[in-house]
Every structure is written in C-alpha cells, then in structure tokens.
Amino acid sequence: MNKKDGNNKREGARPTSARPSSKKPTPGGMPKRAQSPKKETRGKAEQSGAKPASGAVAPKRAPRPAKSTQNNVSKPLKSDDIRLNKYISNSGVCSRRDADIYIQSGNVKVNNVVITEMGYKVKPGDVVNFDGSVLTPERKEYLVLNKPKNFTTSNEDDADHRNVLELVRGATKANIQPIGRMDKNTTGLLLFTNDTDMVRKFSLPNQKSAKIYQVSLDKNLKFEDLEKISNGVTLDGHKLYVDEISYIENEPKTEIGLKLRTPNVKVVRAIFESFNYDVIKIDRVAFAGLTKKNLPRGNWRFLTEQEIINLKNV
After folding, report:
1. Which residues contact 49 (CB under 8 A, 6 or more apart)?
2. Checking phi first, is residue 5 left (phi over 0); if not, alpha (psi -120 to 50) or beta?
3. 53/218 Cα distance (integer angstroms)
4. What is the Cα–Cα distance from 262 to 300, expressed in whole angstroms?
5. For the CA atoms of 169, 178, 105, 120, what is the dihedral angle to 10 degrees?
6. 285 vs 190: CA distance, rounded Å
7. Do 141 and 300 touch, CB atoms closer than 8 A?
8. CA-to-CA distance for 208 and 187, rounded, in angstroms?
9. What is the average per-residue pLDDT within 208-234?
10. For the chain, how far is it from start to end, CA to CA, in angstroms?
11. Degrees (nearest 5) of the Cα angle 170, 301, 155?
C-alpha cells in the first residue's frame, strides 16, 4: 500500500484573513439548568387537613406485584434490511435520488420481480438487478490525495499527462472517483470516494463547503485590486462572492490566499485574469475542513471516521 505518514513540513502557507472579525467570543459555557424543587408526597387527608375518624382503620397498601422474569427478554437485533435506493447508491451506479427515478420507471428488479414501491427494503441474499445488470454493493471508501503537477482528473485519454487515479490505484479495489476537477497545473488537496451521494453533494454550485487556495501571480497584487476582489467579482454575467482574500504572511505580494465555496477550480484563475494578472500556480491547501498537513506531494491517506462524519454534516 502506498500510504505514507509524510514529514512534518507543511506545504503552502495558510492565508491570514484580510478582514479581522469584530465579533467577541461568547463568555462562559451553557448556563446550568435550574433545578425544580422536590415534590412532597402527602396523603389526601393530610393535604385537606381532615382527620381520620376515631376507630377507623387505615387501608392497607396493595402489595407490589413481583417482577416477572418473562420481561427480561433480550431485544431483537437490528435488521440488516436496507432501502432499495440506498442499496443501489451503495453499488456506486448513481445517487439515491436518481435511484428513485429508476425504481419508479420499473428498471429495477429484486429476485426477478419488478419493484416500483418507494421505501422497499432489500433483505440479505436478495438479488438486485439494475437496468439489466446485477448489483454488488461496495463498502464506502474515502481518501485524500496531495495532487502533484502534470496529473489530470479528466477521463479523456491524454498521451502527454497521466491520470490522478494512477496515484491511488493501490489504495482500494472500490470504484472511487475524484470529487471535482483539477487541471494538470493545479496541485493540492483532492478527495476521492465511491460515495455517489457525496460526489453529487460537493459538485453542486450552491454548496456550503469552503476551499482555500494559495495562488502565485506573475506580479504583485495591488491592494486596490485585492479590495475589489474581496467585494465580489462578476464573471460571465454572474456575481461571484469571495469569503476571504489576503496576502500570505512573510511572503511576496505575488502569493495570495483565497477562500471561496465554488467547486470549480477554473474560477480561481479567472478571478485574477479578469484583473490582468497571470496565474503561475494554484495550490489547494484545504477542502471542506480537510488539510494536507503531513501529506507530502503525490501521497494519499484514508480519512478518519470523524473526518467522514464532518464531511457528511457540511
């Protein structure tokens, strides 16, 4: 396996915010919940102030029923049944939403029976046929690569440049694919998975995940241009908003940190070219909370369970 720990050298500097926040941290933690006073149990006669009649015998308290040993039955194990659309999605052929369309269209069979019922559950051992092919669900795999230069994410044959899949070929047998596209000259963080729902999520134009890039320009970025970019840029008639832009600390003013949410890396180059700057290099240093810390160029690693949870909650 090509998995390496890497050295402790961090590639690329993290950009510092051009506009420090004016918000003050909230003091203290969550307030303690107020405790309600304990209820006093009193008999009805005592609460009303009435006294029992002389010679009256207080009723005996009914004995508590004995605990039945028949109730101590172990709970049934969680069912291994899985929704049909999720089963199809786990097979890597399409997302759950697209699977629903195929199911409604009558293109899915379970044990040679056409299923059009939404919410139908597949049992262990069932044979699912999707559009003429038998499906075999894969275990979801998630890994991140520090992409080097001269590798492309395109599926088209290119005799001059190699594909990024060559770098992660030995990681898993699952049918993983990169999330988003990066041209041959763009380097840095690239996420791979066979989770089609996650691929679709991070390919949407209105996603919330932030990406941080270090951009190298052919000349110093003027401060007035930096201010204009920070207020948003209009490209092809569409307004693009930038989360943050700043000079890289202790670096020449040709080194710029840029934070934005669009999934298209080409937009980064287009932003600076619209202000007559030539982009020499683009390096993605962070993606949706993931960083390439301790990950040398050309190396990959699997995500931790917590990182996967964080990605799904973005």
Report:
1. none
2. alpha
3. 103
4. 24
5. 80
6. 10
7. no
8. 22
9. 94
10. 30
11. 55
Catalytic site positions:
183
Alpha helices in the chain (DSSP H): 44-48, 84-90, 96-104, 196-201, 223-230, 266-273, 305-312
Tokens 């000349």 belong to residue: 219
The two tokens of residue 130 are 């999707």
β pairing state of 186-193 and 177-178:
antiparallel
pLDDT exceeding 90 applies to what percent of the chain?
A: 46
* Amino acid making up residue 219: K
C-alpha dihedral sign at 108, 112, 114, 115: negative
Rounded (10°) CA dihedral 230, 311, 12, 176: -120
Question: Which domains are present in the chain?
Answer: 82-134 (3.10.290.10), 142-312 (3.30.2350.10)
Residue with tokens 């040993």: 69
Tell me the pLDDT tens digit for each residue of 228-248: 999 999 988 888 889 999 999
What tokens appear for 155 in the block? 């599926």
122-163 pLDDT, tens per residue? 998 899 999 888 887 778 899 999 999 999 988 765 556 789
Q: What is the pTM of this model?
A: 0.63
Report the sign of the C-alpha dihedral through residues 76, 78, 82, 87, in that order.
negative
What is the tens place of the pLDDT at every residue in 79-95? 578 899 988 888 878 88
Beta-sheet pairing, 162-163 with 151-152: parallel
Residue 77 has pLDDT above 90, yes or no: no
- Name, in order, each residue with C-beta under 8 angstroms of 310's C-beta and a sequence gap of 6 or more: 288, 289
pLDDT (0 to 100) of residue 170? 87
Cα 302 to Cα 304: distance, rounded to the nearest angstrom: 7
Work out the percent of the chain whose per-residue pLDDT is above 70.
73
